[in-house]
Amino acid sequence: MNAIEPDRLPGQLAGSGICIRTGPFVSRIQSRLSAVAAGLALLYPDYPLADPDGFTDFQVRLYTPNPLRRWWRPQVQFAMDGRIPFKPLPLSQAYPLLEWGLNWCITSHMHHYLLIHSAVVERNGLGVILPGEPGAGKSTLCAALMLRGWRLLSDEMAVIDLDSLELIPVVRPVSLKNASIEVIRRFASEAVISPPALDTLKGTVAHLRVPRASIERMDEPARAGAIVFPRYRSDAVPAQAAPETPGRTLLRIAQNTFNYSLLGERAFHALTAVVQASRCHDLAYAELEEAIAWFDRLSGEADG
Amino acid sequence: MAESCLPLLVQVLRAPATAAVLEAPDWDRLIRQARHANLLGRLAHRVADVCDMAALPPPVQRHLDSARNFAAAHARVVHWEVNRIRRALAPLEVPVILLKGAAYLLSGSPVAVGRVFSDVDILVPRARLDAVEESLYWAGWLTTHHDAYDQRYYRQWMHELPPLRHVRRKTVLDVHHNILPETARLHPDPEKLIAAAECIDAPDLHVLSTEDRILHSATHLFHDGEFEHGLRDLVDLDGLIREAAGAEARFWERLPARADELQLSRPLAYALRYCREILGTPVPEAMRQWTDRALPGRVTRGLMDALMARALRPPHPSCEDAFTAPARWLLYVRGHALRMPPHLLLPHLLRKAVRSEE
Amino acid sequence: MSDRRWQVCGRAGLAWVDWGGEVAIYHRGSGDTHLLDPLAAELLRALESGPRSDADLVSLLSELVSPEPERPPQALAETILGELKRLNIIELIES
Amino acid sequence: MATEKDIENKENQIVESDSGVVAGIESRRRLLKGAALTPVLLSLTSRPVLGAECTISGFMSGNVSDHGHDDCACGFTPGAWKTPYVGDGNWNHTPFDPGTCKNQGQGQCNNYNGDGTPFFGPSTFSGSDPHYAGKTLMQVLWLSGNQDPHQFGAHIVAALLNAYAIPGYGMSPADVQAIYANVDANGGAAGGYYMGNNGKMLTVEQVVAFIQSTLCAYQ
């Protein structure tokens, strides 16, 4: 992306659009909105661009739906190839809407892969799936691990190839919500975080730039070796990890899989294989450092 | 501007082998047209039958494979829905006649391969409608339209109950007692349809006869005027006609005769005309006099050709021009006009316009 | 419990994964997934090979269960069959 | 047009059986203690792939899908309507009054006075079943054991409240009232039945199971 000089970015974005590659997917993004241009410039400088005349998976546009409201509570609308899946949002949420929209593009159209609502990180060859049960604090933990040197494959979805059962990286900025924005700012002052968007349906939302190391390895799949259900609990001092049975892990992770029902029996057998190849734990934590230490031991044991 | 000749999607559906030589930008447009027309699953299977998928660009393979998985999920759901419907209705010992997509799937027709479905349609004898509705109710299929006007619209004027939705599976079921509304100008006799229905799984599961299936599909498209799935329905028709012409002796004599018998000659004539023109469906020359007789005069025919040429294209920006939206709207009004007498039509259209603004 | 008979719903059958203490099944017809207790799994495995009457299932349970079980096989069968029926995994064969 | 489904994981929470002794067996043939109180430990019902767009993709995309109408909503259970202070069953979304609390525990109430909307009345139910005569809707919800056979009263009240409070609930108030009137005229809650016009008869237990199928917890 840094092949485009910063001052030419808004022009190209408003014109034929910018084709960004994130793992196997190419998205053509078009928008005249300054917030989108600023967000991309801040969070996507290291991403590879794709040939605009080549094949693009998703053609995405963000625009103000009714020009009459340009000054009175202006709005932003997301469209994919002319299809509008969401209601318009306040203009201040333009950049988060781009990220949510790109997630929707994948989870609604890419049923070639098994898509689990989870974060995925890797170290020393150990791929770890962190299923995102609501309110679990998965993104905070995933961001912290990434900033401590773990490789990020994705913060929102595990993408599993149904034949090889490999974890396919779809590296994108990490979404942080409400308190975890401050937590990560204090955790790593050098972290690059987009300006927060206020009172979205999920409260305050901001996105964290992914270190170059993870982006450079975005074409390198990983193998799952652990499934950890994180749970932030203020009273979990020290952090407590409890093993979870394979059967219950299968059902819990299936419930978090976007296209489990759609892929049917293939998803049942694929998840079973992933569960059987992984150590499965619940991890309750209050202190990020304790959680990270536990993960380091987990990945340390991997190559021990 | 729209392509002057046939849209890319139609060209590839007519000659799937050409997919092997498509370049990336063509694939990009083709997949988007197919997705908007709800034909991506069909396209994927047609291409897979004649091309070496592994030779296609990897991202293209992913989209086509995804579409086949999506269609396979629909097929599983329809099979299960039909199983549960038969279970709920078994005590009534009433014939359950599957219509449209569910019929093609359960009868194993190639038309169903890669097809997606939005709901399940069944036809039951009118005399048993109340008993069927009650049995479905207690099995969890509840009506979605509590509004009194909607109830009357369906029960008095239409040929079906208000759509039912299953309370747990959220699937939608349409229960018909005819293939055209009571108030329509054409009056096919449901008893004849039921009498000719073929049993595909004893004792209760039936589908319409081959000719009646084609006539129903043609009527649904060219009489009801719902062109949101125009091209998909035309692709169904093309598939049904090719399948039947290949399998049934004297098919081209029985089809027009049955159409005349059921007063459905005009919709069939339109179907044959546009299937041949757009999808290249093989229709023997001998049928030309019959279709000429059944079609309206040259002026109306010219207007319909202009409207249909636009309405039957993929609903995608790359295939539309300034006249596409007006053409679809005119056909929408025509569809309603054919279904409802004038004194009902105007208030109904007004009501729908107001409702969609809410 | 008359001579009524049970069968698995639909003809598509089940996919199994047995972890000893827990058994996971995928119902090919409904697309539902369940985690079963081993006893329930045994009953279901029997039904998958063909329709069974209540009596067959109760005797199967009494073979598997210790001589003086906490709950008689009769009550056990009723609990298990009731739950499997509520989840649309099995159904009574309409006479 | 059948858009590809995006999935809402709130839609089908895992129905987790509560505590129960699981008879673990090492080898298949070892004799079991036979105490399998929970035959099915966890269940995941298939999410809608076809038909109504019921899933609101809010959980991830932070937004309500454009056809976010929720016309396949499941209703609250009798338990939820019994304890409005817990927050689920909100009586202000219904035209009925729960009545005042008899003994105000700390913020909780498990006994209501007779000043709420009566069970029998023009806008509620018509009939004469003695189990519910003279009681308010809320009092019927709090009936226990054989005071309310098969919990029929509690479930029919919950269904009526859902019909008003939940947009897109499967049944309209008229549907619920018709079911009650039919059972009341055919023997009532204890030993009565529902007589369908297709000649089919349903026991009160089957009617309660039907109502449960429209409630969130039993989906």
Automatic annotation (TrEMBL), chain A:
InterPro entries: HprK-rel_A, P-loop_NTPase. The keyword Transferase applies. It comes from Thiohalobacter thiocyanaticus. It comes from the Bacteria. Gene3D superfamilies: P-loop containing nucleotide triphosphate hydrolases. The lineage of its organism: Bacteria, Pseudomonadati, Pseudomonadota, Gammaproteobacteria, Thiohalobacterales. Keywords: Kinase, Transferase. This is HprK-related kinase A. NCBIfam families: HprK_rel_A. Transmembrane segments: none annotated. GO terms for molecular function: kinase activity.
Automatic annotation (TrEMBL), chain B:
Pfam families: NTP_transf_5. It comes from the Bacteria. This is Nucleotidyltransferase family protein. It comes from Thiohalobacter thiocyanaticus.
TrEMBL record, chain C:
It comes from the Bacteria. This is HPr-rel-A system PqqD family peptide chaperone. The lineage of its organism: Bacteria, Pseudomonadati, Pseudomonadota, Gammaproteobacteria, Thiohalobacterales.
TrEMBL record, chain D:
This is Uncharacterized protein.
